[in-house]
Amino acid sequence: MSKQTKQIKIGLALGSGSARGWTHIGVINALNKLGIEPDIVCGTSIGALVGGMYVTDHLDTLHKWILTLDKREIIKYLDINLLMGGGFVEGKSIITFFHERMGDQEIESVRKTYASVATELETGKEVWIQTGSILESIRASMAIPGFFTPVNKDGTWLVDGGIVNPVPVSVCRALGADKVIAVNLNGDIVGKHTRNKHLQLTHSAIAEETLISRFAEKVKGHANHYFPEFFEDGEAPPGLFEVMASSINIMQDRITRSRMAGDPPDILLSPRLSSIGLMDFDKAAEAIKEGEKAVQQVEHYLLDMINDQ
Questions:
Q1: Marked catalytic residue, from 39, 160, 253, 280
Q2: Residue 133 pLDDT more than 70?
Q3: pTM reported for the whole predicted model
């Protein structure tokens, strides 16, 4: 098998997509098997998390951990606090978990060029985080509006980078990549959640049931304003997570299409992920497999790209 030389710099753009992001692990592992080791890794949202674990040499640890997840364990890491404002999950618990088990590093210290993408809340400006704590950069990039609370970094409030750049091809190029491999997690998603409503409700039942009970503890009798299960008459409207998932999917799909039209990657990977919902973090094995398959489907193009020098 031909090995990648250092005559060209390979960039890997890992896109946003919540639970579908475990697919990135399969992509990275499959690329490495082909002898392709990216020099530059840029991620948005869940892509920032997987990319951060990769450049700090903790990808195997992350891989093993997520294969043990079930929905009830996932809920433990959702530290709900309605009083914080800006989102009902603080995100401190999951960051603390990663810090305790995998440590934290400064971005400047890792062996690869790394950047996460966030959005400046006040101005809408795209922010590339290239210095400081890896975990802090990940948390800012993953601050899904309305779900996670925003992150204050250097006096600026930051939210999810998927609002402005869901698949950061442009960041890879700006940081010196000659060739860019991009992973779009939202290519076949729009509309699938509402058409497969029964399936989606089945997948998220435990998560929503647990979140409802925790909301009830926080807001007592007002929980019915947040979840449709409390409506008694008529057909219930879509649930909170279904609305959030579908809205985010539509937004990111449209933005990704627009950005890639102007700055296409050299290789685009679009795994088939319509069966994996926003909160299906327990479907890691399925997501990882789809990532591996996406690489295998374009293997000869990848090898041609790295050998064409």
A1: 160
A2: yes
A3: 0.82
